[in-house]
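U., I forgot to send this yesterday:
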Amino acid sequence: MTHQIPQIEAELSEIMRRKSELALKFRSEAEAEKIDALRAIDELNQTLTAMSDRNLRSEVRAPIDGKVHRLFQTTIGGVVRSGQNLVQLVPTDAPISIDISLSPKDRAKVWVGLPAVVKLSAYDYSLHGGLEAKVVDISTDILQSEEEDPHYWVKLEANTSTFGEDKPILAGMAAEVDIIIGKRTILDFLLTPIRAVQEKALREL
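Result:
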């Protein structure tokens, strides 16, 4: 029995050593797995952030209510460059702007704030009437190019963007604009040609 004690102690020591090694190995493996798990979680978080950002960028919101008139990008999954036009939107229940050219000979008569009537060729004026508008801006100088005669740029705003549910006003529609320079009675309009003839006759005397 005495001779067996050292052997038993040696076996116990070996068992304790192996136990320590296993515990150390377990802790090392657990730490490595923890590091791998944390790394995987970090990668997943980065992927989630990228996908969330991509999802946000895929949703386009207009600053005003309106109807889509034209699509510039129709490819599913297509990439859109910064500043590229996506859609042409026609506002609903919002003022619309009309740009016109003004002859230099009429510039002295037209000023910001003057009322106007916009007649759209797409809708019969005798049936639908025109849009009430007003002059909101005029170019400070004459504009000129090879394609156009010298003119002033005039911007008007109309009080509505539709003649009804099925009669929207769309970009590019041809329009005739009558700027109301002053209050004139029906009699004034009738007498204008007569006065012109009288003035011409007086000049020729």
